[in-house]
Amino acid sequence: MRIALIGQAPFGAAIFERLVADGHEIVGVFTPPEREGGRPDPLAQAARDAGITLVQPRRWQRRGVVDEEVIAQYEATNPELNVMAFVTQIIPSRVLEFPSLKTIQYHPSILPKHRGRSAINHAIVQGDTMTGVTIFWVDEGLDTGPILLQRSCPIGPDATINEVYREHLFPLGVETMAEAVQLVEAGQAPRHVQNEDDMTYEGPWEGDVARIDWSQDAQIVHNFIRGSDRAPGAWSEVGGQRVTLLGSTRSDHSGGSAGEVAAISSDGMTIVCGDGESIRVSTLAVGRDRQPAQDWASANGVTVGAVFEPAPAE
Questions:
Q1: What are the strands, taking DSSP E only, across 129-267?
Q2: What is the pLDDT of residues 72-93, one digit of tens each?
Q3: What's this model's pTM, rounded to 2 decimal places?
Q4: What is the C-alpha to C-alpha distance for residues 95 and 115, in angstroms, rounded to an integer?
């Protein structure tokens, strides 16, 4: 089957390799532009290595007006199916509807729950114990199209966003997309309409949204930290310095005030939460400089009894 692959990053490259291995013809690859002087995008490089048409538009459309040159380059590849894998650009409806078999896309949640681009973060922050992947038929809504295929996976009690993605959602996504493409080719791909009653949508989990509220219960804080680890990074302030907290586990320490440092050891830094229970973090970071919590505390004069600042009232 003739496929146009729209996406980027290692996940896009893994989809590329799997579809080629399954005997499909990738007729064109479409990625965002690479940063000058930066590392090559893995999907873009895979296309170059294979001698396949590579188009890297800065944008497909601007203020609702499509870039006709980009559209012409896309249409010249004449795909039967679009496969979207890790897409961050807005793709015009002309492109979505162009192939005879239309467009399918990967999403890292069990839709219609956790629509939006930060689905993995929100699943962990909200304390979900299961998540999964959805391959769906793309329409003009945000993650609203009919479901083709879904597969579930667990979220461990201490799992971070990186661990859930790397260990489950990445490999499961590749397998599920490959299976979905086979169903499309065989004319057996279903279209299950999403139940809007079960829908949730959460905004982007980025920037400064991940400031820790130590007045919350320990389990909530624990979920918050691991759902932000490492991007955007759950953060707080102590000793006049903003720090990012990584590697959260629950601690058996109880008692003390919210935000108080209850212990510092080679196992990490134990911090009290609003219910008197505690969490332990293994790593602290300022910017990109990460250190074991004990080393960071020693270097910055933070000792037992120090207090992380409360989040300001909204």
A1: 130-137, 147-154, 235-238, 241-254, 261-265
A2: 999 999 999 999 999 999 999 9
A3: 0.94
A4: 22
